[in-house]
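Run: sequence + nicotinamide-adenine-dinucleotide -> complex structure.
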Amino acid sequence: MKIAMVGTGYVGLVSGVCFSDFGHEVICVDKDPRKIEMLEKGQVPIFEPGLDTVMAKNVAAGRLSFTGDLAAAVDGADAVFIAVGTPTRRGDGHADLTYVMAAAEEIGRALTGYAVVVTKSTVPVGTNRQVAATVRAANPAAEFDVASNPEFLREGAAIDDFMRPDRVVVGVESERARGVMADIYRPLFLREFPVVYTDLESAEMIKYAANAFLATKITFINEMAMLCEKVGADIKAVSKGMGLDGRIGNKFLHAGPGYGGSCFPKDTQALARIGQDFASPCAITETVIAVNDRVKRRMIDKVVDLCGGSVNGKAITVLGVTFKPNTDDMREAPSLTIVPALVGGGARVRVVDPQGRREGGHLLPGVEWADDPYAAAEGADALVILTEWNEFRGLDLAQMARAMATPRIADLRNIYPVEDVRAAGFEAYVAVGRRGFG
Ligand code: NAD
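>> structure
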């Protein structure tokens, strides 16, 4: 199969690289010339573990290439994937479809023979029909079908998620399009990963419903964590006891500083908006959004309390600012709420993150960046663990405590056992949903 992938972000680049690894001929397109320039030199513009190796292998095999010329990539393609961004539209929570529709129009103008125009971006119900209308309007003679193929990969584990998915969802309306999609995903199908074929609207709904459900699960446990703190229970024990129930499952039951990232915040907002538009409010999702906001802001109070009621003049070392480990993505990370509040409160904030500096450098003004957690903790009044990178999971706590002016930790990912922290010489410890001391 010959595939054009429009958009080389976290989803488009991983999908394009993995499709080429399936043996397809893939051309990845982006309108950002800097990205194409880097990719043509064999450099990966994002941090995603393992992506560089698979990319290099398929470029060398002659199956994968990059261009800024969408028309050239679309010419002769069996399928054209749209994997551009769908951020929150300013002001109303709706998904902004400007990039999707601009891509659809350009694709329409470029189509030369039959192709399936596949939307991989996360888009509201009805968008695939709008894509079809846009392609048709741009090129009334074009021979094409549309397909909805939402993506479920997680940043940080994207290659494995793409190669070994829990499921692939394909919304199609014609046998011809279904045949093309089946050929594209055949390597997964042969390895018995489930493919769910359905209609366009259901495929679009599956993505939002799945993300809203996951965001709800995280927020539920975060709300339970708040209650645990009041009643003297330990959220880790509660999560374990709940998660062993097969109907509940143990994933996404880790209490923390609130969900962030490029998907959950915008997708929950978009779903809430869709519910309002169709006069079928998604009350649970709306509440999840509000509670998550409260959870993030509570983290600021925790740090302020740890510092004795004010962070003014305090030196605070923050470990981790990306929205989760193993990515450089900072979109909607809890750190973007918490760190500016500390800076605004008069704290001197020093930040360590293995990959966050490139993005975080612009997004977190007024902080100092460091590479080594021990050096960054030198003379600090408080340590805040915000993202559970492996580098921060096995710290020599005694060495950290010795380096600090006042050894106090806010462990907002519940990494460390309270006894270990106490034994290492810390004088105060706060976590999420668990008893601390000091
Ligand atoms: P991104 O912002 O990282 O990448 C989008 C890319 O598209 C950018 O490089 C941009 O330059 C390019 N682009 C925009 N318009 C273009 C055009 N007309 N022609 C060519 N290139 C164009 O976005 P992302 O994180 O990869 O997300 C893409 C979509 O996938 C979104 O709808 C998102 O919700 C969804 N999604 C993301 C993830 C994730 O973990 N990031 C997971 C599942 C689904």
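>> summary
The two ends are 63 Å apart (CA to CA). The chain has two domains: 2-198, 234-438.
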